[in-house]
Every structure is written in structure tokens, then in C-alpha cells.
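ZP: hey, is the fe (ii) ion complex queued? I don't see it on the tracker
AM: it wasn't, my bad. submitting now with these inputs:
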Amino acid sequence: MENNSARIGILLVNLGTPDSTSVSDVRKYLREFLMDGRVIDIPFLSRWFLVNCIIAPFRAPKSAKEYEKLWTDRGSPLLFHTKDLKEKLEEELDQNRYQVEIAMRYQSPSIENGLKKLQVAKVEKIIVLPLFPQYASATNGSVIQKVIEVAKDWQVLPSLNFVSQFMDNRLFIEAWSNIAREKLEKERYDAYLFSYHGLPERQIYKASCDGFCKLNEFCCGKLTEENRFCYRAQCYHTTRLIAKNLDLDPSKVYTSFQSRLGKDPWVQPYTEDLVKELAQKGHNKVLAFSPAFVADCLETTIEVGEEYKENFEALGGKQWDLVPSLNSHPTWVDCVKDLVIKNS
Ligand SMILES: C=CC1=C(C)c2cc3[nH]c(cc4nc(cc5[nH]c(cc1n2)c(C)c5CCC(=O)O)C(CCC(=O)O)=C4C)c(C)c3C=C
Ligand SMILES: [Fe+2]
Ligand SMILES: [Fe+2]
């Protein structure tokens, strides 16, 4: 049989979202998510107590209200944008060669389900694409581990190909630039804020197994062979690539980290501090980017698009615009196609 007629399975995996905005569904989601030892990386019993007795009970009602603001007729944006991405990708690929499935690391549709469909289709190869541009153990690492766990007992194991990061893909940078241009053509901004999902500092140190990353300029200021999996360095690198592609004035470009959970130190600078700094410096018009996410979600639409905007305006800022996420933008679909072809 000719090898190039083999069917290749593609599994697009995003983080996951609650099934509904009910407090019980949000609690269920938070429990599954935060009980992942790569997300809250402390010993099992301490994690169990923290998640089940503190975070989930207290956070679920508050988060459910936030999800209500985010929810649409089609449900959670994170999920329906992933479905749209799948459909548009299928239109771009030879359907005799590729089968595309989607999954969420937590809740539904599950990774088990997505992999089962590809197993039944008897694909020869599976390309797993965690939909997180910058590598973190809590996200890409967790997806890869889960896929390995699910597939490990299969009698027939197809070849498995994991895309561990894609933050420097030319089309990824171009997709963000194309979406941002729609804002930049209409408005002149005083500052550009690139806000990434944060991580506990501890997780950055652990990922830098040779101790190279000290969370300083020497590591995170430049992406090299030595630190190519440093999440913070990858975030700064993403900012530089998008800013350069858009020809933004470097003195107006800022990078920060949002969504801190708990009391441990997370990577800095924190977005909430930078919002204050920008307002205090008298920057009236800010354009915010969220390039750690490829779809609109709670962390972009609500946290960056509404909460930070309110904080900025309360401190005297005049205009705060958010660049919408990649969702199923044609250049993003081209990027995913490019990643598929390169890994086929
Ligand atoms: C960009 C990738 C992400 C990283 C890295 C990440 C790490 C991380 N997250 C938490 C805790 C929470 N994250 C929450 C929501 C959330 N996180 C990501 C992505 C990353 N997380 C996304 C896409 C979303 C939104 C999902 C949606 O349904 O829209 C939440 C839940 C929301 C809330 O209650 O505020 C929590 C909690 C930790 C602890 C962590 C790293 C260790
Ligand atoms: Fe998160
Ligand atoms: Fe670093």
C-alpha cells in the first residue's frame, strides 16, 4: 500500500470549559482542571484539600457569574470556536487523507472520545495539536501526558506526533497581526499591552531543569536553544514577533501576565499592576492583545476585555480596546493547516 494514501488523524485540543453556567457544572470543571498535578503541582493530599475544600466551593459561584456574562446561544466561546476551527480546517484539507477531531483537556468533548474516533478510523498517524502557542507543563504538557495515558494500552499504536509549541510560526504571528490591523487602521494608541496567562514561578523553575532560568533578562529576555521551553521567554518572544510584524513603536510595547491564582508568586509583571502603571503614566488609549489564547474565553473577553478595562478607566484611562482572539480567522486556519502539513 502506498504510504501517502494513509489516513492521518488530527486531534485539536483546547483547555476545556464548563458544560453550562450552573454552579455545579462550573464546580465540576474546576475540580477536574485543578486536580491535574501539572496545574496545581503540589502533593496529592494537599492539592485535594485545596481544590475540594477551598478553591472549588468558594470560586465556583463567583466563576459561574462570570461564565454567565461570557455565554452565548452557542454556549462557551472556547468550545464553539474550536468547532468552527475544525470545520474550516476540514474544508482546507484532503478529506481522504486527513480526519480532524477536537477535544478538551477537561470536561467535554473528551480526549478519550476524540482518540477513540481516530482509533476506529484506523489512522496510521495521529498529530496532536494542543491549542496553546507557548509551551507550559500545565497546558501542552498535560495534554500530551493525557494522550499518552489514553493510548498506551491500545493494541495497535499509530505513530504519534505532538506539536509542543507554535508561538513563532509565521502564520500565527500573521493571524494576530491581521486581526490587530483592523483596530490599528481606525485608531492611534498610546500603548500596546500583551497580556499572557500567568504561571506559578515554581513551574518555570521546574521546567528549566538545568536551572538556566532565573526569571531574569538573561533567560527570559531572549529566546535561544538553551531556554526554548521557558514559557516566560516564549511569551516575550511572541510579543516581539507580533510587534515587529506590525511595526509597533517598541517603547510603547508592554508584556505582562494575568490570572494569578493563590498566594504563591507567579511570573511578573502582573497585568493588574501594569494597568495601573499605564494609567498613571497618562497613556490614554491602550490596545490589549492576549496571544496565549487562540479563542475568545473567560480570560480574554471578561478578564482583559472587561475587568482590566474597568480598572483602567477608573484610573482615568480613556480607551481600552481588546484585539479579538484568532477563533476561526482564515489566517489562523492557514496556520493550523501549515502545522498539520509540516508534521504529516
Ligand atoms: C494559555 C494557557 C493557559 C495556561 C498556561 C493556564 C494555566 C493555569 N490556569 C490556572 C487556573 C485557571 N485557569 C482558568 C481558565 C482558563 N485558563 C486557560 C488557559 C491557560 N491556563 C483558559 C483558556 C481558560 C478559560 C476557559 C474558559 O472556559 O473560557 C480558570 C477558570 C476560570 C476561573 O474560575 O477564573 C482557572 C481557575 C492555573 C492554576 C494555571 C497554571 C498553573
Ligand atoms: Fe488557566
Ligand atoms: Fe526564563
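AM: back. The beta strands are 8-14, 98-104, 125-130, 159-162, 191-197, 253-258, 285-289, 319-322.
ZP: great, adding it to the tracker
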